[in-house]
């Protein structure tokens, strides 16, 4: 696999350890977060609210009562993601500050991963009308995923020099799509041939959810064994108090000095907008396909498989394009394509698989590339000693933890009763993100952060 091999300047053992955490968590992100769990939880919530699972011809229009508020069953999963991310806004920066002060980063990363894997595996028990039993593991899984990725993303700076980060990030992301593709392919077979296997479709879905948790937990041992620990560097000294108190002190210091890194903050704000759009499109796509367009679960899984396959090559291609034209311009081009995708989503006809697959191909081309290059571009703008802390802020908009997008999507659906205006409303995130990204001067930002200038940005 020469196209996935590490650059000459990167240690091979650490490169594969780093890359395989993308492989590990992508099983959960793809099977659970992207394809199966949101529509499954919606069906469980509909059964609790209405006594039956809604269809396009016979929708469930009764709300659940949660803390005295009426919540549409079709919006429940997106609200859970929203709440998880709001909690993350308080929790992840502290995780990042602690990670920057620890010599054992990999244990912190893998600890969160294993906790999330346990929560993900517990989704196997969700059934009947027990939507609470589904909402709680989804909340814990998303929070643990974000926490592990805070530490994981910061490790990119440790293992790759500036000129090789686009390549390492893109190839790791591509390997993640390969892992997600493989597990989802197996789960497609289980869900499709559930009768031949002697089980109901619900049981097949629950076993697939279990497989995603086990995949995440077991493959996390690979980075744990391959990555090495490094001592903290350039950490702001807080002379008294516990590790938690010292970490809050470091975070407060970073917040006070943010104005000195204007380009870093501008890039971060741009990313939070356009990645909210990306993550929301990904997380709602299966629900949109099932509830709005009338496709069966097998069609949705096959479509996501196609997206995963195309995204594998898309991430590699984006890495090569960035090596020639720079990550900044390549990301901007990808965002233009995302705007066209959400507009096309509004116009998709129901029960017509070819247009749906065509949109899936378009998503696959830009999905991995925009995210992988955003990670490597942001790494160039972070002051030394605060890598994990800055990536904790970055994770507020990372995959599976978007909140403005899922909130907007859920509200528009609740107000209109349709997912079509909800999907096109997401275009605003890409437009705002692109406008802010255009104002980012990468070379100025790298100088402000005191980092080495790569040959191409």
UniProtKB/TrEMBL annotation:
Membrane in keyword set: yes
SUPFAM superfamilies linked to this entry: MFS general substrate transporter (SSF103473)
One Pfam family from the record: ATG22
Signal sequence annotation: none
Subcellular location: Cell membrane
InterPro entries, alphabetized: Atg22-like, ATG22/LtaA_families, MFS_dom, MFS_trans_sf
Residues that span the membrane, as ranges: 76-95, 107-126, 132-152, 172-193, 205-225, 265-287, 299-318, 330-347, 418-438
Domain of life: Bacteria
Main location as per UniProt: membrane
Matches recorded under PROSITE patterns: MFS
GO cellular component terms, A-Z: plasma membrane
Keywords per UniProt: Membrane, Transmembrane, Transmembrane helix, Transport
Membrane topology: Multi-pass membrane protein
Residue span, Major facilitator superfamily (MFS) profile domain: 263-457
GO molecular function (one): transmembrane transporter activity
Protein name: UMF1 family MFS transporter
């Amino acid at each position: 696999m020469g196209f996935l091999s590490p650059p000459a300047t990167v240690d091979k053992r650490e490169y594969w350890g780093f890359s395989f955490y993308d492989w590990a968590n992508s099983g959960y992100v793809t099977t659970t977060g992207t394809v199966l769990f949101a529509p499954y939880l919606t069906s469980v919530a509909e059964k609790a609210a209405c006594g039956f699972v809604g269809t396009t011809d016979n929708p469930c229009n009764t709300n659940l009562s949660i803390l005295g508020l009426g919540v549409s069953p079709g919006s429940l999963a997106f609200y859970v993601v929203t709440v998880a991310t709001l909690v993350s806004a308080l929790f992840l920066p502290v995780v990042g500050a602690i990670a920057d002060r620890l010599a054992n980063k990999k244990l912190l990363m893998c600890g969160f991963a294993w906790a999330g894997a346990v929560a993900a595996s517990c989704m196997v028990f969700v059934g009947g009308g027990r939507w609470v039993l589904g909402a709680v593991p989804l909340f814990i899984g998303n929070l643990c995923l974000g926490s592990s990725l805070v530490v994981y993303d910061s490790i990119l700076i440790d293992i790759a020099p500036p000129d090789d980060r686009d390549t390492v990030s893109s190839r790791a992301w591509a390997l993640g799509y390969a892992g997600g593709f493989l597990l989802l392919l197996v789960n497609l077979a289980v869900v499709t041939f559930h009768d031949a296997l002697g089980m109901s479709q619900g049981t097949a879905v629950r076993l697939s959810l279990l497989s995603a948790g086990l995949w995440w937990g077991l493959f996390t041992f690979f980075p744990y064994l391959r990555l090495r620990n490094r001592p903290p560097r350039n950490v702001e000294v807080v002379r008294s108090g516990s590790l938690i108190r010292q970490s809050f002190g470091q975070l407060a210091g970073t917040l006070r000095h943010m104005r000195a890194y204007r380009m870093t903050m501008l890039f971060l704000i741009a990313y939070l907008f356009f990645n909210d759009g990306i993550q929301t499109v990904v997380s709602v796509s299966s629900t949109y396909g099932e509830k709005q367009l009338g496709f069966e679960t097998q069609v949705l899984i096959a479509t996501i498989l196609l997206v995963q396959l195309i995204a594998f090559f898309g991430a590699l291609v984006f890495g090569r394009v960035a090596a020639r034209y720079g990550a900044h311009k390549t990301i901007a081009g990808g965002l233009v394509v995302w705007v066209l995708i959400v507009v096309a989503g509004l116009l998709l006809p129901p029960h017509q698989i070819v247009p749906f697959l065509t949109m899936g191909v378009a998503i696959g081309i830009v999905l991995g590339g925009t995210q992988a290059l955003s990670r490597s571009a942001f790494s160039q703008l972070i002051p030394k000693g605060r890598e994990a802390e800055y990536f904790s802020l970055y994770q507020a908009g990372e995959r599976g933890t978007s909140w403005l997008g899922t909130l907007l999507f859920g509200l528009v659906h609740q107000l209109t009763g349709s997912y079509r205006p909800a999907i096109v409303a997401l275009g605003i995130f890409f437009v705002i993100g692109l406008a802010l990204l255009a104002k980012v001067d990468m070379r100025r930002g790298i100088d402000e952060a005191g980092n080495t200038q790569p040959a191409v940005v």
